[in-house]
Design brief:
CATH architecture of the largest domain in chain B: 3-Layer(aba) Sandwich
Oligomer: heterodimer
CATH class of the largest domain in chain B: Alpha Beta
Order of helices and strands of chain A: EEEHEEHEHHHHEHEHEEHH
Largest interface: A-B, 23 and 21 residues
Number of helices of chain B: 8
Number of strands of chain B: 12
Number of strands of chain A: 10
CATH topology of the largest domain in chain A: Rossmann fold
Radius of gyration of chain A: 18 Å
Strand content of chain B: 15-25%
Strand content of chain A: 15-25%
Shape of chain A: globular
Largest sheet of chain A: 6 strands, mixed
Order of helices and strands of chain B: HHEHEHEEEHHEEHEEEEEH
Strand order of the largest sheet of chain B: 1-9-8-5-4-2-3
Helix content of chain B: 25-40%
CATH architecture of the largest domain in chain A: 3-Layer(aba) Sandwich
Helix content of chain A: 25-40%
Number of domains of chain A: 2
Number of domains of chain B: 2
Distance between the termini of chain B: 48 Å
CATH class of the largest domain in chain A: Alpha Beta
CATH topology of the largest domain in chain B: Rossmann fold
CATH superfamily of the largest domain in chain A: P-loop containing nucleotide triphosphate hydrolases
Chain lengths: ~260, ~300
Amino acid sequence: MTEQLPVLRAESLTRRYGERLGCRNVSLELWPGEVLGIVGESGSGKSTLLNMLSGRLTPSEGRVLYRDAHGADIDLHALSEGERRRLLRTELGYVHQNPRDGLRMQVSAGANIGERLMAAGGRNYGKLRATALEWLDKVEIAAPRIDDVPARYSGGMQQRLQIARNLVTGPRLVFMDEPTGGLDVSVQARLLDLLRRLVRDMDLAVVLVTHDLAVARLLSHRLMVMYHGEVVEQGLADQVLDDPHHPYTQLLVSSILQG
Amino acid sequence: MLTLQQDSLRSGEKEKMPLEGYNFAYLDESTKRMIRRGLLKAVAVPGYQVPFAGREMPMPCGWGTGGIQVTASVIGEEDVLKVIDQGSDDTTNAVSIRRFFASTTGVKTTTHTAEATIIQTRHRIPEHPLTEQQILVYQVPLPEPLRWLEPSEKETRTLHALEEYGLMNVKIYEDIMRHGAIAMSFDYPVRVNGRYIMSPSPIPRFDNPKMHQCPALQLFGAGREKRLYAIPPYTDVKSLDFEDYPFEVQHWDEPCALCGARHTYLDEVVLDDTGKRMFVCSDSDACAENRARQGMTEVSHD
């Protein structure tokens, strides 16, 4: 947290789905290198918030300001679609819960990693391949698997590949939607380990959505608890989890299975 | 509109109508006008796919209905038409389309590239250089070069609009990864006028360089997908490639077995079931011309 200014600022975000309220009056700030966890049960508005923050869903009210690499504040929802998409595949990243949504399942792992680079103008096969190999190594996938299609990968490998595909352009801010969902416990642990290392090494800012408090405690510095579309509690991760104030947070914390 | 439809029934022109009861070139005038409007847009935005209300033609999709509709819209009574299929003037598809236009328009047809003003083609660009006086009409089965990786039409249109062509390079990457070289030998994607990526229709990549700065107008029609696109005369057309895997055309070790030409596109013809084969020019007109120039006797392509 060397810089003094937040990389992402949200100002009173509200999203209505007709009569229903998806998310109400959420404001937040995210600093470089910080991991912000958003927890809450299904339907509490976590994904709505994440989609608004990442520019994929237009808020009914409020705005999202992203501070780009040159220090300029960009209103994500005021950008043209082309600019927003360019930003999403260069300075931002989005890791889907299901790797099938974030990967191209019918092209090789190497091409999956290289796609962002090629979109940015990479036209040298040798260099693309070298970068792909480097990133496979970083996410602990064996080099000979570079030419396999992700459909032949295990679930955990697919998720790691998706992370590599997002990080290859050196983004500054990554959105993660339940990155460990659907993985078994030992694979989850390995993935969390990897994520912690990458976040630290690359000084990434991360918005992490999860319903798993253990994941939230391990990865995030700060926590926001959402309930019925509103933020009911926020603070340092350990503080929120060890000393929950809001009744819903207390319920959430007490419902963790004690091993 | 009614008067438009009856354009060709004006008195005095009736004897020029070869087929009683049909409009000149089969399509009604308002349809032709609609297609020409689409073509004007296509010429104005080189390589951009213009949707058009494709009509049912008296032949199935896949037989060149897109190209036929384009030809029908631009052909006039003074035109001379040549139709080729795989470079040859005498295959079924070429013969039937040529007859179709001969009977519905009564225009002169030819097999000689130099004599033609409109050339409708499937799979080849003639070997004989084209001129400013000529229009080349391509029959296109799949107009969308990005379809291979992106099944959604909405998404491919967005990608074209935003000039997001990373996906196309993914295809080239996969090709090099699998085959050690860019193995696409036909329908090799090109970038037109530095902007749109375009499918050149299934011509061999040998013909790709001929599209670059071509003096003739090139029109593309996809009947099933209902798309038109165009390359105006003297437009830059660049075949996509990687820095370390540059674009190359095909080469053959031997010359054409009939005319001896060394720089034409050759077809491999199997002669018997013991594996004997020969390589001959795929452009039958250019091959015959070559032979005539050398004083060789006429040889049938069959």
